[in-house]
Amino acid sequence: MIRFLRFITVCLSVAIGTLLIGQLWMVSLDTASLIDAGRGVLFLLVALGLIGEQRLGLALSALICLPTVVSTPLSGLTPLVVSAQYALLSASLVLLLTQIKRERATL
């Protein structure tokens, strides 16, 4: 179950990164769109980290989702990207808490 949920987080991170970078072709090139594309690159890099078994990728994926969660009404992102970031944030936090709980049980 945990591996499947981790695979879902990898897929979500790749999808979000691809969508954020792909928006460069759909919107005008301004500072906000370039920052979103930069965040897309971060999502793709974090997806590589999520393939492993460590907690750093989970913490980073939750961390880079926070700007969208905090400023959803102000962001110019599509609802699909925002929903995917909410899903990635919740899945990352669940996995992070599960992994911490499992490590404390083995101590």
List the helices and strands and how they pair.
Elements lengths: L1 H21 L8 H20 L5 H15 L8 H28 L1
Helix pairs in contact: 1-2, 1-4, 2-3, 3-4
Describe this structure in words.
This protein is mainly alpha-helical and 107 residues long. The chain has one domain (2-106). It is built from four helices and no strands. It has helices at 2-22, 31-50, 56-70, 79-106. Helix 1 packs antiparallel against helix 2 (31-50) and helix 1 (2-22) runs antiparallel to helix 4. The longest helix has 28 residues, at 79-106. The radius of gyration is 14 Å and the shape is elongated. It starts with a helix and ends with a helix. The model has no long low-confidence stretch (mean pLDDT 89).
Provide a brief overview of the structure:
The protein has one domain (2-106).
List descriptors.
mainly alpha; elongated; 4 helices; 107 residues; 79% helix
The number of distinct β-strands equals 0
Largest sheet: none
Instruction: Assess the beta-strand content as a share of residues.
Output: under 5%
Helix segment tally: 4
Helix content: over 70%
Tell me the distance between the termini: 22 Å
Computed over alpha carbons, the radius of gyration is: 14 Å
